[in-house]
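Design job #97: recover the sequence.
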């Protein structure tokens, strides 16, 4: 298991603020399908979910901090992939209920900018053709918490998927 620095199970203030935002999936399916949590799932819940998702009962979900879901049960998580780095510097990923998955952002700050452009974790990871739709509430939230400069969501997502290009294949290898 990769260890991060600090209290890596403490919920970041930025995600606590995101949890207070109401995401609207309406607008004929063009909204954001995201239900953020106000705490991380427990280590036990995460391990149980990962074992069921992969059908590999030897796995430990300790490298994931699940912080939200979509309407189908797909999960948004911080993936502790960078040894010794704090939670805020770890990538954000999406793992769908039907086995689909993808990297959303290289860090929590960039994830906030993705949200501000109207992309939830699922939309960012799975729908390359989706157009940005500015959200003023989430843009203001990102401006308060982000430590990275604002960039278009597509640029952030493309960079993250390039840096962690084998994420989906690595997960597939864990499946039984």
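Job complete. Output follows.
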């Amino acid at each position: 298991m990769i260890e991060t620095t600090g209290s890596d199970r403490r919920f970041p203030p930025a995600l606590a603020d995101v949890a207070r935002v109401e995401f609207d999936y309406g607008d004929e399916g063009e909204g954001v399908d995201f239900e953020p949590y106000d705490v991380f799932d427990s280590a036990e819940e995460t391990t149980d979910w990962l074992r069921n998702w992969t059908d590999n009962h030897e796995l430990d979900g300790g490298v994931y901090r699940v912080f939200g879901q979509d309407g189908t049960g797909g999960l948004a998580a911080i993936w502790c992939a960078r040894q010794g780095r704090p939670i805020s510097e770890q990538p954000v990923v999406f793992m769908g209920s039907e086995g689909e998955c993808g990297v959303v952002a290289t860090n929590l700050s960039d994830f906030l900018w993705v949200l501000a452009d109207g992309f939830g974790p699922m939309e960012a990871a799975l729908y390359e053709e989706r157009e940005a739709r500015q959200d003023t509430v989430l843009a203001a939230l990102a401006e308060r918490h982000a430590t990275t400069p604002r960039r278009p969501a597509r640029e952030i997502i493309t960079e993250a998927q390039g840096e962690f290009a084998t994420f989906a294949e690595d997960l597939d290898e864990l499946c039984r």
